Backbone:
């Protein structure tokens, strides 16, 4: 049973007849330029929007209202309440999501030195991004989705976030999809590469297979796909 | 610690190389515990599944063993570790000899050049 399958999915003018599948669980990188359809694909996978045509499956189940609670979705824009403290942000998440692991979230905030009493609006941009990642990683949902979690952040924060995902996604029972347009820094963290352009999926492949059977890096494969 | 990986080669084999080097140097001795998969993933900056795969492969080769609930340990089979070390050394030597051959050096030239380089290194030390 595949983690995700798209069958001839059409959505507005963004995706036309898109078919692909991600066969195994793990860390999945969704790479593509701005406007390539990454965000639309993630919203469709999370069941937040519906395709005009085609079918989408997650772990064998057709995506719809009933699969929504199995996905922890972190949108690209900041979604924290600025006037909430770090602690209140965690409490709110615990009330909203039945699968939220408050103890894990508390441990992560203290590990990353986020002051529980500080209001979100007084946190640095990097720390707001950390808090947002913690709130997503603390959900026990089988699929975590992070839309552009690294964009607009400094290199140290980006590396922190990638390490946090690698360490705290519970890969025995969870998968995570991360979209980005920066390949180089995410490459070593990936199990599976999805590479999109203009609403089409140019590459869907296991990255260690690419290296092992074809002697190609993620960048090599993307270059080849663009030729 | 950061590592530079060859991105067009499987990462799990490169991670095995890193651990084998540590074991051969004695940094990780017989019976020593390897870091947990997650800790190693963060330390090296890669996917935990990749670390898991390299641990499994090292276990298949008999160099490490996983004890349920306790972690992964370097084998206490000292002979096997010595064979591993010699094999890795032989690999390095044949790689070196092949590159020297590509540069057109004869075995005799190579031997004397090694002697000279070693001597120069000794001299700068003292």
Residues:
């Amino acid at each position: 049973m595949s983690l995700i399958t798209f069958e001839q999915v059409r959505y507005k003018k963004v995706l036309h007849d898109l078919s692909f599948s991600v066969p195994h669980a793990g860390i999945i990188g969704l790479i593509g330029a701005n406007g390539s359809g990454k965000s639309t694909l993630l919203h469709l996978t999370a069941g937040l929007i519906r395709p005009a045509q085609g079918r989408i499956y997650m772990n064998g189940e057709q995506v719809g209202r009933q699969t929504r609670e199995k996905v922890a979705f972190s949108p690209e824009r900041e979604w924290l309440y600025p006037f909430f403290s770090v602690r209140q942000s965690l409490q709110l998440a615990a009330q909203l999501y039945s699968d939220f692991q408050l103890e894990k979230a508390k441990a992560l905030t203290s590990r990353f030195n986020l002051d529980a009493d500080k209001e979100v609006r007084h946190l640095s941009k990097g720390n707001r991004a950390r808090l947002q990642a913690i709130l997503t990683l603390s959900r026990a949902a089988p699929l975590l989705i992070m839309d552009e979690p690294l964009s607009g952040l400094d290199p140290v924060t980006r590396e922190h976030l990638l390490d946090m995902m690698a360490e705290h996604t519970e890969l025995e029972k969870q998968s995570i999809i991360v979209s980005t347009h920066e390949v180089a820094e995410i490459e070593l963290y990936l199990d599976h590469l999805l590479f999109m352009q203009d609403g089409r999926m140019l590459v869907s492949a296991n990255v260690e297979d690419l290296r092992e059977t074809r002697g190609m890096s993620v960048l090599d494969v993307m270059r080849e796909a663009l030729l | 610690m950061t590592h530079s990986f060859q991105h067009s080669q499987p990462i799990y084999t490169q991670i095995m190389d890193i651990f084998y080097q540590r074991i051969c140097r004695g940094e990780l001795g017989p019976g020593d515990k390897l870091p947990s998969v997650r800790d190693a993933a963060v330390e090296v900056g890669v996917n935990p599944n990749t670390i898991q795969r390299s641990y499994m492969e090292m276990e298949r080769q008999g160099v490490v063993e996983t004890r349920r609930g306790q972690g992964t340990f370097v084998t206490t089979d000292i002979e096997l570790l010595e064979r591993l070390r010699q094999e890795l050394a032989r690999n390095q030597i044949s790689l070196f000899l092949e590159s020297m051959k590509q540069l057109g050096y004869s075995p005799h030239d190579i031997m004397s050049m090694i002697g000279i380089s070693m001597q120069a290194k000794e001299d700068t030390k003292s």
Summary: The beta strands of chain A are 4-11, 15-22, 27-31, 53-58, 61-62, 71-74, 143-146, 175-180, 192-197, 200-206. The two ends of chain A are 32 Å apart (CA to CA). Chain A has seven helices and ten strands. Chain A touches chain B through 22 residues (CB under 8 Å).
